[in-house]
Amino acid sequence: MSGLTCLILSSLLVAYASAQCPSPWEPNTLYPGFCYYHYVFPVSWDTANTICQIFAGGDLASIDEFEEGTVIYDYWNRTAIDQSLGYWIGLTDIHDSGLGTRQWTDWTSLQGKTNWQGGQRPTDTSEDCVYVANEGDTDEERKQWRATSCTLVLKTFICERKLVIN
């Protein structure tokens, strides 16, 4: 690597490390570069998605790794008023016209790692939107996903956005 390349990379790392999420957003301690905000008032998935994209400048939280799901769950668990509801995440098949192919609201595809309750992907085509259920006896069970209606069910939700480095 050239000296100039090393200098540029070093500068970016310093800027990245010193950047912070704006208050009241919470940083992702495991995957730096992302911030989360938990909206504690229950709304439909459609409303949650709109709030995250238009008002918060992000998306409903996407979970690409089990560990990332744990960071998000722990944050929700600390800030939830009513833990019986679970919370919306950004996984949906609402854009695929009933084909059953789910993707994240940030348009990334659902990788091979999933965390469906009962280990099986739901097949009901009316259940287009996904939430973390917070049901079960163990932490692993409480972090599992369930699908339901996007408009008839109300849940709290977590927005995710990339950390902006000035």
TrEMBL record:
One of its GO terms (biological process) is immune response. Residues 1-19 form the signal peptide. GO terms for cellular component: external side of plasma membrane. It comes from the Eukaryota. Pfam families: Lectin_C. GO terms for molecular function: carbohydrate binding; pattern recognition receptor activity. InterPro entries: C-type_lectin-like, C-type_lectin-like/link_sf, C-type_lectin/snaclec_domain, CTDL_fold. Keywords: Signal. Residues 31-150 form the C-type lectin domain. PANTHER family: MANNOSE, PHOSPHOLIPASE, LECTIN RECEPTOR RELATED. This is C-type lectin domain-containing protein. It comes from Strongylocentrotus purpuratus.
